[in-house]
Amino acid sequence: MADTPPLSTTGNPALKLDAQLCFALYSTLLGVNKVYRTLLRELDLTYPQYLVMLVLWERDERNVSDICSQLYLETATLTPLLKRLEARGLVNRRRSPSDERQVIVSLSEAGRALYAQVQHIPGCMSEALSCSQDDIVALRKQLLTLRDALFQHV
Amino acid sequence: MADTPPLSTTGNPALKLDAQLCFALYSTLLGVNKVYRTLLRELDLTYPQYLVMLVLWERDERNVSDICSQLYLETATLTPLLKRLEARGLVNRRRSPSDERQVIVSLSEAGRALYAQVQHIPGCMSEALSCSQDDIVALRKQLLTLRDALFQHV
DNA sequence: GCAATTTATATTGTGCGCGATGTAATTGCA
DNA sequence: TGCAATTACATCGCGCACAATATAAATTGC
């Protein structure tokens, strides 16, 4: 039954695209990225670069693995990204004197100053989501539960 | 106020990473991809490739822009992906005789046969999400509402 | 009937995102 | 003390994802 030729009327309903939570997540994120691209274009930042700036604005002087774990990314992703931010003059990178294996990432003056230029972004995104603040809070909570389950599973 | 040096106690609360719905979405999708990578490794498929196969299993013989619009992707993303699936022998690509601009994508015999090998995947993913079916349905619905708002906004 | 426009797909360049692998610094422990 | 194991980061290769651009086919307007 399950492995018969997949005609739309006979296929496994769980394999239908429009039934899948993961595709809803995936395609929604495509939309999020699209909106962020327009919001961040004038700052010449990508969304992942913006995320790195957000974590540094919250707490400066962090090593790479700190940033990795907060953003759920691998160093293979962040090392080149941080080098691009350094090349743009937004962050500095230096080895920790106490542990030469660690690279300490810190905001440059320009990186700190950029904070003033992103104040409107949460509001713009909120508007794009056109969704009540209560819904946003509830949805965020549900997603974090999912995220924990997914990362725990692997 | 908003553009003072971003100390963690004085910064704009809306710019805190852990308050952001979009980061919850982003990081949750990283987890989804991680789980799919392990599930799809034995089939040697990536998640976007799996999505293309899903849409073809639902309805075969579709042109590229059909697939693009159903997956919310651009042709610049799908054209190389489809060529890789063709090189793997899972799909065929041919120009439409009635409109030479269109490329019709269809399942090969191997592509159809692969359907039998993915029957367990929704169940595995469901388990990884460790979340009630009702929650999944509700969450999916909320995400689709968000997605519509985001794509309408741009 | 043919130029202008639109449509469908392809190409190029840039930036993620990560598995696999490498290297140097540090730690642990016999 | 010495050396194996671990940790922190970097590098490489591949596959998305898309903006910008190109090209050819089809359609429209006149």
Q: Could you characterize what this model shows?
A:
2 copies of one chain form a homodimer. Chain A is mainly alpha-helical. The two termini of chain A are about 30 Å apart. In chain A, about 55% of the residues lie in helices and about 10% in strands. Chain A has 7 helices and 3 strands; from the N terminus they run ααβααββααα. Chain A has a domain at about 45-120: Orthogonal Bundle (Arc Repressor Mutant, subunit A), CATH 1.10.10. Chain A has a 3-stranded antiparallel sheet. The interface between A and B is large, with 69 and 69 residues. Chain A binds a DNA duplex (30 and 30 nucleotides) through helix 1, helix 2 and helix 4.
Which key terms come to mind for this protein?
7 helices; three-stranded antiparallel beta sheet; Arc Repressor Mutant, subunit A; DNA-binding; mainly alpha; 8% strand; 154 residues
Secondary-structure class of chain A? mainly alpha
Please, how many helices of chain A?
7
Greatest contact pair? A-B, 69 and 69 residues
Question: What is the share of helical residues of chain A?
Answer: 55-70%
Report the CATH architecture of one domain in chain A: Orthogonal Bundle
How many strand elements of chain A?
3
